[in-house]
Amino acid sequence: MAAPRVALLFGNTAEHNSRAGRMARSLVEAGCDVTLVARAAPGLSQDETRHGYRIVRVPAPRGPRWLPAPGLPGKAHAPGLRSAVREGPGRLAQGLRFLLLARHWADAVERAVPGADAWQADGLVMLPVALKLAARRGGRVIYDSLEIYTESGSFARLPGLWRRLLAWRERRWAGAADTVLTVNEACAAELSSRLGLPVEVVMNCAPRPAAFPPRPRRFHESLGLAAGTPVVLYHGYVFRNRGIEGLFEAIGSVPGAVLVVMGFGPPFEEYRSRAAALPHASRVHVIPGVPPDELLSWVASADVVAVTIEGSTLNHRLATPNKLFEAMSAGVPVVASDLPAMAPVIRNTGAGVLCDPADPADVARAIRSILEVPAPEREAYRERALSAARSEYNWERQAGTYLGVYRRLGVILGTGEA
Known about the structure:
alpha/beta
């Protein structure tokens, strides 16, 4: 029998997407022919094979020139005629433009992947693309809703009418999909209420760690740090509301420690400039992210991982970012925001300390509470993190749920688990 064909659809380059890579590898191990379709970008291969799955990057389609539209809101605008035009006819044009772009995305993907037994959409933007491809070529549709999209980023700043319209469209599209996935129980409950559908949880966990993984010191080697210098690490997307500004300030109140911000994103250079202007700039390093396959050895080189996302939107308050579970898998204690989804993980595992991400002094207090305890207590944090990652918060366990979804949909035959 031919291997089941699965296409994972992304509206971004997917180069730093650990969840995508883990899902693709699990599907390959289950006997699937997997293609990960992402956005092309300079310096990235347009067609490559990695760990048994194919990565195809296609140029992002351009919107129609005859339909100009405003971008998503980056900030609130003062009332006036221009604002009224933007939030009235402008938003209508934006919605029509998005629907046309979804069709163009589907055309581009179809040229790269003529058919599939399952189309998995990464997020709300790619969901209508997956539905169009399934309507043309057949196959199941899986909506991987990593966030509460209508309450995230620029979507959350849309006027209420347009946000409600977007939520209505999401309900219609999700109802047309075969199943919906998300990243934790809090998000699942919220999405299920909003969409009127059951939602399956596949967490963003890292691989199950070895019994006692080694502790490299890659930051000390690459940055020329003295052997005993404690490293506080933020890794991942470099953007506002991730708590990075608070960490810049907080590390000034943690004697002897350095902060490493390792990541990617459009404002990366802006944050590097901000760090260089700090009074304690010599203790703050902003460096590019590393490939997913190398990430855990870098995380394991830190003494504390900061997951201080701010509770600025409902989406952020219900977040459990990849970096939380990557730290646990690497055996590194976490300083995490005291928010509804993350806090229970920290309290139940004892793998770190909670803080108020909006208060740099409290962030500094949480970091010091880990770094300044005696060595046996720091080792206890490490052991609790590893124990939680080995027993519950690991990808091998999540892969069983994930592949079970594909089996239930008839894409993969059999009843075994990864």
